[in-house]
């Protein structure tokens, strides 16, 4: 996130990439009323009920698998969009995920989760001005599929929406504007490296961007990275991973390596030293997948 705090300039410009795992699995069937079952069902019902009423949508939503909340993987956005999109389809409505996001209260700060749901790949949004209704998509690129992510989720949790709202509502506390310029340049470097499939430039830009943006949030998370995330970042670096980052507020962190063999060797070294979950995943260059159940 390039400029989270300085008012009078465009804020919340964000970037992200879709990955193949972990996933939400949502089954939607025809029904005479709106009903949501399974994990996080109450939360999803609350999010989509007004959207469903507005469009006259009814059906049974079964959430078979869901990513936990507040671990830094954007699980709420993906889950709500999956439920809303599937509900629209069983009612023979094709509704753009951006419209669903707006009507269910998603994308308050970042549109990245919505755009990776819709398109997959690497996306950058334009953030918000005072008049922005939803962060517009700036660019979407194919992410090199041979590059592999190592994702670690240590114990603990990131911030909830209420705490996040309070932080972003605070008045600017003297963040140097030069930091936002620096972050903007690193984001251009990062995007260019993806487009040119230049791994070495990508990992350098990623780490530089993460450290620059993290310094803006250090007041709230105890350092450039959150306390729970910092230890895992250190372990990744000790194992030779140059491109590292914290996902959202954490505690999830990730490293990017050139190939599967390298990732598997690093994973073997990390697993005995972590008290949480660690796994390998690949980028996903397509958006939501809809399968008709027979």
TrEMBL record:
Keyword vocabulary terms for this entry: ATP-binding, Glycosyltransferase, Kinase, Nucleotide-binding, Transferase
Organism superkingdom: Archaea
One Pfam family, short name: GHMP_kinases_N
Domain GHMP kinase C-terminal: 192-270
Transmembrane segments: none
Presence of the UniProt keyword Kinase in the record: yes
MF (Gene Ontology): ATP binding; beta-ribofuranosylaminobenzene 5'-phosphate synthase activity; kinase activity
E.C. number: 2.4.2.54
Protein's pathway: Cofactor biosynthesis; 5,6,7,8-tetrahydromethanopterin biosynthesis
Catalysed reactions, as listed in the record: 5-phospho-alpha-D-ribose 1-diphosphate + 4-hydroxybenzoate + H(+) = 4-(beta-D-ribofuranosyl)phenol 5'-phosphate + CO2 + diphosphate
Residues covered by the GHMP kinase N-terminal domain: 54-111
Enzyme class (EC, first level): transferase
Keyword set includes Oxidoreductase: no
Entry similarity comment: Belongs to the beta-RFA-P synthase family.
Role noted for this protein: Catalyzes the condensation of 4-aminobenzoate (pABA) with 5-phospho-alpha-D-ribose 1-diphosphate (PRPP) to produce beta-ribofuranosylaminobenzene 5'-phosphate (beta-RFA-P).
Quaternary structure note: Homodimer.
Protein known as: Beta-ribofuranosylaminobenzene 5'-phosphate synthase
Lineage of producing organism: Archaea, Thermoproteota, Thermoprotei, Desulfurococcales, Desulfurococcaceae
């Amino acid at each position: 996130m390039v400029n989270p705090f300085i008012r009078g300039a465009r804020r919340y410009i964000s970037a992200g990439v879709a990955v193949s795992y972990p996933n939400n699995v949502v089954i939607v069937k025809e029904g005479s009323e709106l009903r949501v079952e399974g994990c996080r069902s109450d939360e999803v019902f609350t999010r989509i009920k007004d959207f469903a009423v507005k469009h006259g949508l009814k059906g049974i939503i079964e959430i078979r698998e869901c990513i936990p909340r507040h671990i830094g993987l954007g699980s709420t956005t993906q889950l709500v969009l999956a439920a809303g999109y599937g509900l629209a389809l069983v009612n023979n409505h094709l509704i753009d995920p951006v419209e669903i996001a707006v009507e269910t209260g998603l994308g308050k700060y970042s549109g990245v989760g919505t755009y990776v749901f819709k398109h997959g790949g690497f996306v950058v949004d334009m953030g918000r001005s005072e008049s922005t209704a939803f962060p517009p998509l700036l660019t979407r690129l194919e992410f090199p599929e041979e590059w592999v992510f190592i994702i670690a989720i240590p114990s603990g949790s990131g911030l909830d929406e209420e705490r996040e709202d309070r932080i972003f509502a605070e008045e600017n506390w003297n963040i140097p504007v030069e930091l936002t310029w620096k972050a903007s340049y690193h984001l251009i470097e990062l995007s260019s490296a993806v487009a040119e499939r230049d791994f070495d430039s990508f990992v350098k830009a990623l780490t530089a961007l993460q450290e620059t943006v993290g310094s803006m949030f250090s007041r709230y998370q105890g350092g450039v990275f959150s306390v729970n995330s910092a230890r895992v970042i250190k372990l990744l670096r000790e194992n030779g991973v140059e491109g590292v980052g914290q996902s959202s507020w954490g505690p999830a962190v990730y490293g990017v390596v050139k190939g599967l063999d390298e990732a598997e060797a690093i994973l073997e070294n990390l697993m005995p030293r972590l008290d949480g979950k660690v796994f390998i995943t690949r980028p996903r260059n397509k958006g939501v997948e809809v399968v008709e159940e027979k």
